[in-house]
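quick q for whoever's on today - can somebody do inverse folding on this one?? i tried earlier but teh output was garbage lol. tokens:
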């Protein structure tokens, strides 16, 4: 996803317009991806490499599957030992091929998204969003009115984090509507439209409870950060 200079200008203009009638602060971040989820993909590959070969054993997994058989039949105990060795080798090969195959499949973005439980994606996106909230000083505004609008595109997760000053004066339904406006734009492949809609809603809530002060100053820069 490419964010153009025009997109940056649109978000900055939307923030400036929203903050014109309030002393509150709004900040926007778009992250292309918050995590590679490599640990989850490796876990799937490891689990598959343990389970699939075991399923193949009742189906007759032998060394013959990988060309490890012999054209000669040995009619003594050593022959049985050779059969066991070939079977163990076949099992190890099946495990390795399964691990590699599942891991390679997990590199396909839509498949990778399905492999990662939503609760894990949500937790990692929220952690990064909170880091951004703190890093840009949204927790230290004069009236505790900082709002972060955060979209993790590849992770298919969004977060709207509000400081206590504005959060305690609004309802959960308001924040749900703000998130819904953001998600609607993203699903329509117009993330900046979603950002503008969410910014406008946050601006309305802030202006209602925190009108401009005579000595008001812009505590947080009015721009979009792309990670």
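ok took a stab at it. sequence:
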């Amino acid at each position: 996803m490419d964010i153009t200079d025009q997109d940056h200008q649109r978000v900055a203009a939307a923030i400036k317009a929203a903050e014109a009638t309030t002393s509150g602060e709004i900040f926007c971040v778009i992250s292309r991806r918050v995590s590679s989820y490599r640990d989850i993909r490796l876990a799937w590959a490891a689990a598959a490499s343990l389970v699939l070969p075991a399923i193949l054993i009742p189906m007759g997994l032998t060394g013959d599957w990988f060309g490890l058989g012999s054209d000669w039949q040995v009619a003594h105990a050593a022959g049985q030992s050779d059969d066991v060795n070939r079977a163990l080798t076949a099992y190890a090969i099946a495990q390795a091929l399964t691990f590699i195959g599942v891991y390679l499949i997990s590199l396909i973005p839509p498949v990778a998204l399905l492999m990662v439980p939503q609760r894990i994606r949500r937790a990692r996106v929220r952690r990064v969003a909170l880091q951004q909230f703190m890093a840009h000083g949204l927790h230290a505004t004069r009236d505790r009115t900082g709002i972060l609008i955060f979209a993790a595109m590849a992770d298919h997760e969004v977060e709207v984090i509000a400081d206590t000053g504005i959060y305690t004066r609004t309802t959960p339904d308001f924040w749900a509507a703000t998130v819904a406006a953001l998600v609607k734009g993203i699903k329509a492949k117009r993330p900046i439209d979603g950002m503008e809609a969410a910014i406008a809603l946050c601006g309305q809530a802030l202006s209602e409870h925190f009108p401009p002060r005579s000595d008001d100053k812009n505590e947080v820069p009015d721009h979009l950060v792309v990670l």
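fwiw Helices lie at 5-19, 38-56, 77-105, 109-115, 118-135, 164-167, 172-187, 191-209. also The two ends are 11 Å apart (CA to CA). so keep that in mind when u check it
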